[in-house]
Structure formats: C-alpha cells, structure tokens
Amino acid sequence: MKLYTKTGDKGLTRIIGGGKVRKNALRVAAYGDVDELTSYVGLIISEIADYPDLKTQLIEVQQILFDCGTDLATPDDSRGYRTKPEYTAWLEVQIDRYADVPPALTEFILPGGAPIAAKLHYGRTIARRVERQVVALQEVEAINQDVLIFLNRLSDYLYAIARYVNFKAGVTETNYRRNKRIFH
C-alpha cells in the first residue's frame, strides 16, 4: 500500500466506510484534532521519564485517543464504536488519585511551572479545543457520546497531573491576581 493516494490533491479524504468528504468537513476536523492531541501526548511521553506511572497512563490515553479518532472517522456507527464508558471511569480514578496530592486551590492558577507540567497544561488546552470541535460535529451528525465525555474528562486529568508534577517537583504554582498588576 502506498503512503499517498492523491485523493487529498483535490481537497478530499476517505473516511471509514469508504465515503469521500472534504478535508475541511467537521468530521475530519474533529478526528484531525484528536490526532494532534494524540501526537502532543506523545511529545509529553517522550519527556516524562521521572514519572513512570504517568508515562504508562499517558500511553494508555494515546491508545484510547486512537479509539476516539476511529469513532469520529466512522459515520453512523458502521463498524461499532470503540470508545467505551469504562475509559472515562478509568480516567476518573486517576484524577482522584492525583488531584488530592497537591494542596487544595483557593484561587485560579496560571498554567506553567515545571517544563512537563507546563506541557501538560498546554495539552489540557488542546483537549478542550478538541472537545469544542467534537461538540460542533455532534450538532450536525450523530457521534459516539463516550468520545465527548472522555475528552472532557481528559482535560481534567491533564490538569490534575500537571498540578501533581509541579507539587512533586517542588514548584510553587502562580496564583492568578485578579485586577492586581505590578505595574502602574
């Protein structure tokens, strides 16, 4: 099988089931954004050696994101959905495991801190954008709702482990100062 098909030369792509759609179709944008998120999680994995448990979990997240992308690339459930409610339940267990380790927040924090934590925060924002794209798709086409739920919980998970990494690294998080500036 050749890597190139030349279908894209005309702005089209094939989706699961054999149909052709425009490359800017909401469905293609949704699973393309999932692909971007999966790749970004891969970047984090490549740099997270100090946290082997998180690395293992993030590899599992990538596996699930592939399922999410497949579901989004498959119109009308023609091949059976892959993303399951159990995936979200697993994420919720992980969120609960890490969210209570750092001190409770009393204010909003600015994304950042240790380099891996900053990348996790950025991954969280990508997950939120992907979620918005999937919501746009579901307004016009049926989707597996478990994909949307998983993406919503994934952003919470990335936030929780970003805070966990900062705490373990001894990095103090920066609180958002509401209307208080250091300049005049």
Automatic annotation (TrEMBL):
Gene Ontology molecular functions: ATP binding; corrinoid adenosyltransferase activity
Reaction catalyzed = 2 cob(II)yrinate a,c diamide + reduced [electron-transfer flavoprotein] + 2 ATP = 2 adenosylcob(III)yrinate a,c-diamide + 2 triphosphate + oxidized [electron-transfer flavoprotein] + 3 H(+); 2 cob(II)alamin + reduced [electron-transfer flavoprotein] + 2 ATP = 2 adenosylcob(III)alamin + 2 triphosphate + oxidized [electron-transfer flavoprotein] + 3 H(+)
Question: By its UniProt entry, which InterPro entries does this protein fall under?
Answer: CblAdoTrfase-like, CblAdoTrfase-like_sf, PduO-typ
Q: In which pathway does it act?
A: Cofactor biosynthesis; adenosylcobalamin biosynthesis; adenosylcobalamin from cob(II)yrinate a,c-diamide: step 2/7
> Can the keyword RNA-binding be found in this entry's annotation?
no
| E.C. numbers | 2.5.1.17
What are the UniProt keywords, alphabetically? ATP-binding, Cobalamin biosynthesis, Nucleotide-binding, Transferase
In this protein, which residues make up the domain named Cobalamin adenosyltransferase-like? 3-165
Top-level EC class as recorded in UniProt: transferase
Gene Ontology biological-process annotations: cobalamin biosynthetic process
The record's comment on protein family reads: Belongs to the Cob(I)alamin adenosyltransferase family.
Oligomeric form and interacting partners: Homotrimer.
NCBIfam families, per the entry:
PduO_Nterm (TIGR00636)
* Protein name (record): Corrinoid adenosyltransferase
Q: Which organism is it from?
A: Latilactobacillus fuchuensis
List the lineage, top down: Bacteria, Bacillati, Bacillota, Bacilli, Lactobacillales
Q: Which gene encodes it?
A: yvqK
